[in-house]
């Protein structure tokens, strides 16, 4: 777009409504001036009515019901006083009723149509009723009651059309997101998962041909093989999430979460778990963050303070969940954990959930990892 500021200005609802009213005001102003200079030609009531019924249309989108009530009331008053002949009398009411149908729905539109129809039928009956021919006025009454529903119906049609357009656009955005997720899944499968499989195979082959004497090397290779196998398993679970059509589908779970903490703590062999509060269903992002915080903290404990014990505390609060992992290792050994990439990734994951992360050595020895994850923002 060559003129973005002009486009934004013209797209402003205030500008559009003022532009709609200006022609009515110009025509009404000239007509009123003409009738005032030539009082014997036409009554000034009609152009004055045109001005009075046009001005409220500026607020038609903000207060559609109030504007429709004011415009219809003024128009009915003009019909009773000056008759049906006037400058654009009736068009303003149609615009106001169209706005009600465009921005309201259901019973509000139905009751507005009934009220406007009865209001228009009343002056028609008073003005056109003839005792000698009582059935002639029925046609005028029916037409007066149906006319408001025409404007309301057009507004409802425009409303439904706009909602369908927004729904199509939302579906297109979701389809684009799903396509991008599938593309990322293909990249992960073709590159990362392939290299992890190669690493696992090489480590396993090296372990099988290694002599039994160097026990430490064999244990290191076994740990590397197990880590590679676990990384492959989690990679497959991640691919299932990326390939899932919706976040609520059966494939949305990655297999990690607060419910898996007992199994994680048991596998670590050097930790205990304490749960406080009534467990609740956590949002997916928070559920994954809880598991990853504990997993990374226990991994750092085994890496930087081997042989120490760790305590895991999970507390369910009213609007948040707390995770704390404390070990009894020496401060000197655990201080190195704060400089690794694991704590950085942990901080990013907690920040994405709108939470707070605290890590650092304890005064009496050991290391502490604490995370507070709010539930409302997640």
Automatic annotation (TrEMBL):
Pfam families referenced in this protein's UniProt entry, alphabetically: DUF7134, HATPase_c, HisKA_3
InterPro entries named in the record: DUF7134 (IPR055558), HATPase_C_sf (IPR036890), HATPase_dom (IPR003594), Sensor_HK_TwoCompSys (IPR050482), Sig_transdc_His_kin_sub3_dim/P (IPR011712)
Catalytic activity: ATP + protein L-histidine = ADP + protein N-phospho-L-histidine
SUPFAM superfamilies per UniProt: ATPase domain of HSP90 chaperone/DNA topoisomerase II/histidine kinase
Regions crossing the membrane: 14-34, 65-88, 108-126, 132-158
Keyword Transcription among UniProt keywords: no
Keywords: ATP-binding, Kinase, Membrane, Nucleotide-binding, Phosphoprotein, Transferase, Transmembrane, Transmembrane helix, Two-component regulatory system
Limits of the Signal transduction histidine kinase subgroup 3 dimerisation and phosphoacceptor domain: 180-245
EC number(s) from the headed UniProt entry: 2.7.13.3
Residue ranges of domain Histidine kinase/HSP90-like ATPase in the record: 289-376
GO molecular function: kinase activity
DUF7134 domain boundaries: 12-151
Protein name: histidine kinase
Origin species: Nonomuraea typhae
């Amino acid at each position: 777009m060559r003129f973005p500021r002009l486009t934004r200005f013209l797209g402003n609802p205030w500008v559009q409504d003022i532009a709609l009213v200006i022609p009515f005001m110009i025509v009404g102003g000239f007509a009123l001036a003409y009738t005032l200079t030539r009082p014997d030609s036409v009554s000034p009531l009609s152009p004055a009515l045109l001005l009075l019924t046009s001005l409220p249309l500026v607020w038609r989108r903000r207060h559609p019901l109030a504007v429709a009530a004011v415009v219809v009331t003024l128009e009915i008053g003009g019909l009773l006083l000056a008759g049906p002949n006037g400058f654009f009398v009736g068009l303003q009411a149609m615009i106001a009723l169209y706005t009600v149908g465009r921005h309201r729905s259901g019973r509000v539109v139905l009751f507005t149509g009934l009220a406007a129809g009865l209001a228009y039928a009343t002056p028609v009956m008073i003005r056109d009723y003839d005792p000698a021919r009582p059935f002639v006025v029925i046609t005028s009454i029916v037409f007066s009651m149906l006319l408001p529903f025409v404007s309301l119906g057009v507004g409802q049609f425009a409303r439904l059309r706009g909602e369908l357009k927004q729904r199509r656009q939302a579906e297109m955005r979701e389809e684009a997101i799903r396509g991008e997720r599938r593309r990322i899944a293909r990249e992960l499968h073709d590159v990362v998962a392939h290299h992890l499989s190669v690493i696992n195979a090489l480590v396993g082959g090296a372990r099988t041909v290694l002599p039994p004497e160097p026990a430490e090397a064999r244990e290191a290779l076994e740990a590397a093989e197990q880590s590679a196998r676990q990384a492959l398993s989690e990679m497959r679970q991640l691919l299932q999430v990326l390939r899932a059509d919706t976040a609520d589908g059966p494939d949305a779970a990655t297999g990690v979460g607060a419910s898996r903490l007992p199994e994680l703590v048991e596998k670590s062999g050097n930790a205990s778990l304490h749960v406080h509060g009534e467990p609740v269903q956590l949002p997916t992002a928070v559920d994954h963050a809880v598991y990853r915080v504990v997993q990374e903290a226990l991994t750092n404990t085994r890496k930087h303070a081997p042989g120490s014990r760790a305590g895991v505390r999970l507390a369910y609060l009213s609007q948040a969940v707390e995770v704390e992992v404390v070990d009894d290792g020496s401060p000197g050994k655990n201080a190195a954990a704060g400089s690794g990439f694991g704590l950085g990734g942990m901080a990013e994951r907690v920040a994405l959930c709108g939470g707070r992360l605290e890590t650092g050595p304890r005064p009496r020895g050991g290391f502490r990892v604490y995370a507070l994850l709010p539930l409302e923002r997640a």
